[in-house]
Amino acid sequence: MIDLSKDDGLWTVTINRPDKANSLTKDMLTELAEIAEQATEAKALILTGTGKVFSAGADLDEARAGLATDPVWERLSGAVAALPCMTIAALNGTLAGGAFGMVLACDIRLSVPNAKFFYPVMKLGFLPQPSDPARMARLIGPARTKLILMGGQKIDASEARDFGLVDRLVDGAVAEAAQGICVDTLAADAQIAKGIKALCQ
Question: Tell me, what DSSP letter sits at residue 120?
Fold first, then answer.
């Protein structure tokens, strides 16, 4: 349910469970974390999904059994954030719940225009993953972060772009658009990209 392709320094990771809105099980999250931890050799990494939803967050059955607050989410987002290469979330559709973590940890976020964004922790009755509020606040500010996390507001892709949560809206194949952004990075010495990324922290 997690597909990985490697093409001359470009790693593309695809969540492939469209029949369940790409909801994430513990095994899937562990696999994603392991891929991110091993991607230190990649020049660029793209995270995307199949179907009309990037990810609905935790698998509901496993969430009820404790997955919603499992440390594997933090392991995954931390591994993505630590990568020295360019990381792009190519959001093929709606982003919800704990799936925000790995997306917020990416360098760049692209989205199709019809995506929705929501993180319903208030309604579900638990805290978000520890690093998610701080990463979100750095992107969109504390008030808008509270609007989403405390106010439970669902925002559309246009508003997400206006907020700064999404960097660019893409009509059509969003993963291909992400590949286009990676061209110069893939052609350059990996140390240059690593150095630029460090200077932007």
Answer: -
